[in-house]
Fold this sequence. Notes:
Keywords: Repeat, TPR repeat
Shape: elongated
Family: Belongs to the SGT family.
Number of strands: 0
InterPro entries: SGT, SGTA_dimer, TPR-like_helical_dom_sf, TPR_rpt
Organism: Macrostomum lignano
Structural class: mainly alpha
Protein name: SGTA homodimerisation domain-containing protein
Largest sheet: none
Amino acid sequence: xxxxxxxxxxxxxxxxxxxxxxxxxxxxxxxxxxxxxxxxxxxxxxxxxxxxxxxxxxxxxxxxxxxxxxxxxxxxxxxxxxxxxxxxxxxxxxxxxxxxxxxxxxxxxxxxxxxxxxxxxxxxxxxxxxxxxxxxxxxxxxxxxxxxxxxxxxxxxxxxxxxxxxxxxxxxxxxxxxxxxxxxxxxxxxxxxxxxxxxxxxxxxxxxxxxxxxxxxxxxxxxxxxxxxxxxxxxxxxxxxxxxxxxxxxxxxxxxxxxxxxxxxxxxxxxxxxxxxxxxxxxxxxxxxxxxxxxxxxxxxxxxxxxxxxxxxxxxxxxxxxxxxx
Length: 326
């Protein structure tokens, strides 16, 4: 055992060996004389300090070749890295167990220790993001997912959890974007596909322009003509509105065949008249325009399965994001 134990002189001898190899390289490379002289002085100082002197060559010949200083350093770093990795993995497993036990706050602490032990792991940041989402801290989850993707841009789970965090905060268009990226990386994942469809549907409902393009469907009148979502009785009580409506119909009638029955106008023609009338109200009577808009909004609630007041079933107003697969 004592023969294999390194002596105090092994390290300085390894340093001198390293300096000799550097000296040889730079001599062959025609390095400036100042550098070569500095290396030689350093070697002499180490020999003098440790009493190596001229006996160094004879002692080295009697011993087996020692590993280079670079090899010793690399081996030490590898051993340390392995130990660090094992410790971090143990902390990650502890966090996973805490998540399984529905203890996300403690799981955050465990994942944080894992990150501090081995920084830069996409997995540790992504797992902590899941714990933050469980706690409802979705902004912290977003930050962790972004750190995970900075470490591993191809990590599908980080995109998926980023999508979940954005959906939970009502940013469904962003959620759909990141669910789409996750699905590109893992095209066979059913959960990402379902979440992408859910996010797209939620984004369409939340988009005001989409609502204008797809107005709530109204029940037809008894004679089959479409029912317009406007309280015309309220309009009849507004002289300006009534006068403009009368003038608008008169103008349109002048360009139509005498035999045409205005009651038989198509839905598109009626909609065009409505848009013209709405533009007039917005510029001439903003208060009435707001009242009519409110009337339209009230008339559309509950008809597409997402509006309406309290209650349950399809008419229940969602007070939280849709259910996503985490």
